[in-house]
Amino acid sequence: GLYERAKLRVRCYPKSRDMQPGRSPLTPLPHPLEIKQKRGDWILKQRATLSQETWRQLRGGQHYALLASQTRDQVLRRFVAAQLAHRATQRFLVDYYREAYAVAPAALYLRATLDSQLRTGRQLELTSPASHLRPLRRATEILEVKTCGPAPSRC
User: For the chain, what percent of residues have pLDDT higher than 90?
Assistant: First the structure.
């Protein structure tokens, strides 16, 4: 992968872990907004919460109005500034089923996620039914192991 990269994303989650993607209503707004930056082996995530009004403004391209507003949320301000600086636009909606696993004790913080049933589409309304999403052409599962600090030498 690239040594340095950044992602701007808005996340939404099913109301229950037992619900499958595309068949469950999404949680009502607010949704978490996220800036994820990678530089070498280090990853930094910054999060904020979007209100219905803020989501409407972002979707409507009212970036300058958001920057001029009195919001104290610095992550939201950085998100909007990055959108403008890099001419970032909304590209995809991705839906998947996630299984999460953790290892105890907390001192050995290690967790893994297994993502499956990946579907994607260009319809970007987070609160609309997922019927417009299509499965990837080939079955894909993504296993990701996450740690705080350096990865342990043995798992």
Answer: 5
pLDDT tens track for 47-70? 988 887 887 888 788 888 888 887
Q: How does the average pLDDT of the chain come out, rounded?
A: 76
In this structure, are strands 31-39 and 142-147 parallel, antiparallel, or unpaired?
unpaired
Query: What global pTM score does this model have?
Result: 0.67
- DSSP letter string, the chain: --SEEEEEEE---BSSTTSPTTSSPBPPSPEEEEEEEEETTEEEEEEEEE-HHHHHHHHTT-HHHHHHS----HHHHHHHHHHHHTT-----EEEEEEEEEEESSGGG-EEEEEEEEEEEES---TTS-GGG-EE-SS---EEEEEESSSPPS--
**Which of 92, 90, 78 is closest to 46 using CA atoms?**
78
- Integer Cα distance of 41 and 154 in angstroms: 18
Name the β-bridge partners of 50.
31
User: What are 48's two structure tokens?
Assistant: 């904020």
